[in-house]
Amino acid sequence: MGSKTPHDDQHGPNGGTTSAAIQSANPPKPAAASGLVEGALESQDEDGDDDDDIKNGAELKSDGEKKKRKRNKKKKNASGGQQQSSPPRVTLTDIFRNKSYPEGEIVDYAAKNENLQRTTAEEIRHMAAVSNMDDNFLSDYRQAAEVHRQVRKYAQSIAKPGISMTELANEIDDGVRALTGHQGLDAGDALKAGLAFPTGLCLNNIGAHWTPNAGAKEVILQQDDVLKVDFGVHVNGRIVDSAFTVAANPVYDPLLEAVRAATNTGLKEAGIDARINHISGEIQEVMESYEVTLHGKTIPVRAVKNITGHNILRYKIHGDKQVPFIKTKTSQRMEEGDIFAIETFGSTGKAYLKDDVGMYGYGRNTHVSTAGLHHASAKSLLKTIDENFGTLVFARRYLERLPGVKNYHLGMRSLVNAGIVESYAPLVDVPGSYIAQFEHTVLLRPNCKEVISRGDDY
Q: What is residue 53's predicted lDDT score, i.e. its pLDDT?
């Protein structure tokens, strides 16, 4: 999910965390780091037989006669759990019973630092973030990543010309809820695990922040469309943000390859103490070395200027660090314990996105006081938002499916006007242009980086 640059008005869901626990998980960053300048059972063999059966095959009765022991012919499931269905609807905990979730791509840091066990004040400042990367942290993140991989695999199989955006969005949403085992209908359930932000399905010149809404005109995927699919999965607030682009017409392949290569460059350069201005320059150089021929005209692929990749905090998709796709003057750097969404957008247009008409979603701004809120409908709606979404961005259809939520528009207008809730509109380039996007989440662990969302597809 792309973040707008600090020169624009919107920055994703502002605000702190929904509780003290979340606040402690997201410690403030120092100015030098964050400011812009400008499994089988052990006692059984593969057939499920006891070891004693293998050794003897029979046992002596008390009178000396031999009595054959009955063999248990029931095979054990080799995976220790169920197999995934199509569409994916089997909860991941049932599939990975007694097994660990798969790792992401483990990559050694390019620059080896022999003093990885930091003994300076820098270690103390980041001790909270690093110590947070324990077994529970990794289990949550790897579960969320595996949910993303399985759901997007199915989404890729049905994202073909003729499908409606509503159907595709519902399949992704339902898949995430089913695999995490949290439908999000009871108060607080969606905060345990589920969707981290509205599923983005952006066509052609729409770069980011578009999702289908009830009552709007249905949009059908066409043969010549370029579709960006951007969705997030969280487990206990640990957010995996990953996106990909599909295009049925192979004429767009160079555009997709340019952006995929640029994202992989960003992932390669990411690491502890990496300077973001250097990463941005490398991304731009790779992306803008490509060109695409459309309608007989050769067009350079340009890096989008005013949206960025970003770091991720617990229950908060956009942190205080940004990774632009163009060379930028900034003192920001990546640090041990950071989690980044490395994403890039390439365009055949002006490569500058503007707000369009429409509604993508809403996000709670906990920095704004609610003392002046007087409307009962607004207070009731805010309570519902805090109980079900906290600081996670949500779509209208996520809110409207909750029991008892109806006629909320006046209350929402009051919350938005007061700045307590922020609204997000689609971001578009000039008509007739095409944009592609690829994105992965990377964990900057103390001794390696883990591209947690990496899969066989991209």
A: 46
Give, in order, the Cα–Cα distances in Å from 353 to each of 52, 296, 305, 348: 70, 25, 8, 12
Residues 6+ apart with CB under 8 A from 161: 221, 222, 223, 225, 248
| Average pLDDT rounded to a whole number, residues 140-153 | 98
Q: Which of 36-40, 214-218, 278-282 is predicted with the least confidence, judged by mean pLDDT? A: 36-40
> What is the C-alpha end-to-end distance of the chain, expressed in Å?
17
Query: With 0-12 CB in 10 A as exposed, 13-18 as middle and 19+ as buried, what is 246?
Result: middle
Which pLDDT does position 115 carry in this prediction? 55
**Residue positions forming the annotated binding site:** 209, 230, 241, 310, 318, 343, 439
Please give the structure tokens belonging to residue 134: 């324990």
Q: Which residues are annotated as a binding site for a divalent metal cation?
A: 230, 241, 310, 343, 439
**Residue 102 CB contacts under 8 Å (≥ 6 apart), including other chains:** 142, 145, 146
Q: What is the largest CA-CA distance in the chain?
A: 94
Binding residues for substrate, as ranges, are 209, 318
C-beta of residue 229 within 8 angstroms of C-beta of residue 165: no
Alpha helices in 112-213 (DSSP H): 121-125, 127-131, 135-158, 165-180, 189-192
State which amino acid sits at residue 63. D
Q: Which of 367, 407, 412 is nearest to 391 (CA)?
A: 367
DSSP 389: T
pTM attached to this predicted model:
0.77
Structural tokens at position 250:
């192979």
pLDDT band at 126 (very low <50, low <70, confident <90, very high): low
Tens of pLDDT along 47-63? 444 444 444 444 444 44
pLDDT value of position 122 = 56
Residue with tokens 């999702």: 211
Place of tokens 């399949």: 171
